[in-house]
Design brief:
The protein contains 7 helices and 19 strands. By secondary structure, it is α+β, with helices and mostly antiparallel strands. Strands 5-6-7-8-9-10-11 form a 7-stranded mixed sheet, with helices on one face. The longest helix is centred in the last third of the chain and has 14 residues. The model has no long low-confidence stretch (mean pLDDT 97). Bound molecules: iron/sulfur cluster (SF4). Iron/sulfur cluster binds next to helix 1.
Length: 291
Amino acid sequence: MPSASRRRLTTNAPGDLFVDSSCIDCDTCRWMAPSVFDRADEQSRVHHQPSSEEERASAQLALVACPTGSIRTETKHDLAAARSAFPIPVDGDVFHCGYHSESSFGATSYLVVRPPERGGNVLVDSPRWNKSLVARLEELGGVRTLFLTHVDDVAEHARFAAHFGAERVMHAADAVAGIERVIAGDEPVDLDPELRVIPTSGHTAGSACLLYRARYLFTGDHLAWSETRGHLYAFRSATWFDWKTQIRSMERLARERFEWVLPGHGRRAHVPLPAMREEMERCVAWMKARA
Ligand code: SF4
């Protein structure tokens, strides 16, 4: 039951669906259902009430994913389908876990589904603990590896690792208590023939990306797509460790092959090669102009 101090934001369009005053401005609903949610006064709002089945479905998924339960309805709805929908497909065997956690400021968590003979499933960063999600993860084969991109997005890592018997992987400079496999230094480390950890210090000292099958790059808060700028970028105003170090990390990362950028915060990008290489060069140049 939402607390009585939560109020419907006046910026919402009139109608059943609304965002309340507890919104932390994490951006999740806006990229999940942009035809329904946008930003006003540093919070999200409903700018358009869902008017099609497709919009209703995407708004309900955003409601379930919202880390703070800030998306609500005036009338009662059956959300069972939305709750059991996650993880939802992104591309190939990569899924979006939904159930974003407030402790990681609503960072996105991903699941890579692989058969046991290829090393089993990989969870990238931690969603919030939820019974429906855990049941679906069990149905999809559990979690063998839990890769943590950096210290900000660990959320309920210990609970997921204990429940699934997963091996947690994290860079030494950010590693929290209990991590089973600690990666050190600046050089890439192959976990198996499909998974490569690429240290990308900068946003935090121990930030790292995970590259899957030289196609999908999970970037945490190191790299994302900017809708407003129209190119790949890094969070200059949220560099907690060192911007120049992050530029050097980005230059090393640009040598890798990938087509998808799948961030914790910020927007995804799918840019087929060789255009992705040009996008990375543009990103590095943009960063250097801000050094
Ligand atoms: S997902 Fe929730 S907390 Fe995040 S911006 Fe939307 S309403 Fe706000």
